[in-house]
Amino acid sequence: MMSDVKVVTIDGPSGSGKGTLARRLANRLGFHLLDSGALYRLTALAAQKAGIALDAPEVAALAESLNVRFDADGAAYLDDVCVDDVLRTEQTGAMASQIAARPDVRTALLARQKAFAVAPGLIADGRDMGTVVFPDAPAKLFLDASAEIRANRRYKQLIERGLSANLSALVDEIRIRDDRDRNRAVAPLRPATDALVIDSSDIAIEAVEAQMLEYLRARGIC
Predict the structure, then answer these.
(1) Does 220 carry a binding-site annotation?
(2) Of 44, 22, 19, which is closest to residue 31 (Cα–Cα)?
(3) What is the mean pLDDT of residues 160-188?
(4) 37 is known to lie in a ligand binding site
(5) 52-96, pLDDT tens digit by residue?
(6) Domain containing 31: what range?
(7) Does 19 show up as a binding residue in the annotation?
(8) Which of helix, strand or coil describes residue 135?
(9) Please, what is the average pLDDT of the chain?
């Protein structure tokens, strides 16, 4: 990581709001944005496209050679085809969670993630940004919320997009993913020891952003 690049990490479980807040902070500060979860989702989609099982050793090599890019609005492209809609589905998220537990895949994507740290700064959104990828980052945040709250948020998003959804099933899926992410042997989901932990369960997004900005100002980030 370049010494003159300000890196802010935002970790947390799925549905905690970290992606939305990472984009808001990146836009406000004029920083670059790393959606690390998208890289795992793209790897999973690439494996599916190639007919490779998620537990096959070839997945790690696939992660190293991904042909992916993001446009200015954050839309993801795999082999020059926009896959943003399928990328954000619960099914793709579950596949990504499976391969994210693999040490070889995490190693394959580590250098690619670190390369996002360029001037003037980076907002890195993920699950191990502050603990593994950028352990020396000057500002670390961990955003959490109850499984029920996160499932309800996801339910509303799906309904607004005209998709069918089952709230109780979403709660179960989130709990299963949380358990997998928090108990995996490599880079488990947990706050860095020096991270500011914010529970967004009962706090409006504007209030959470205000807390984050206050924290970043105190550290000379903005």
Answers:
(1) no
(2) 22
(3) 88
(4) no
(5) 999 999 999 999 988 888 776 778 899 999 998 899 888 898 899
(6) 6-213
(7) yes
(8) coil
(9) 91
For residue 113, give the amino acid letter.
Answer: Q
12 assigned to a ligand binding site: yes
Is 51 flagged in the annotation as binding? no
- The answer to whether residue 192 is domain-embedded is yes
Flag whether 190 is in a domain: yes
- Give CA–CA dist 9/28, Å, rounded: 15
What type of residue sits at position 41?
Answer: R
Residue 130 assigned to a binding site: no
Q: Which residue has the tokens 């926009």?
A: 82
Q: Is residue 174 part of a domain?
A: yes
Instruction: Give the domain CATH number at 209.
Output: 3.40.50.300
Strand, coil or helix: 32: strand
Per DSSP (E only), the strands in the chain are: 6-11, 32-35, 68-70, 76-78, 81-82, 121-126, 139-144, 196-199
Overall domain count for the chain: 1
Beta carbons of 39 and 109 less than 8 angstroms apart: yes
Residue identified by tokens 């969670």 is: 97
Q: How many CB atoms lie within 10 A of CB 138?
A: 16
How far apart (Å, rounded) are the C-alpha atoms in residues 26 and 65?
27
Is pLDDT at 167 greater than 50 in this prediction?
Answer: yes
Q: Is 13 annotated as a binding residue?
A: yes
- State the pLDDT at residue 1: 47
User: Does the residue 45 lie in any domain?
Assistant: yes
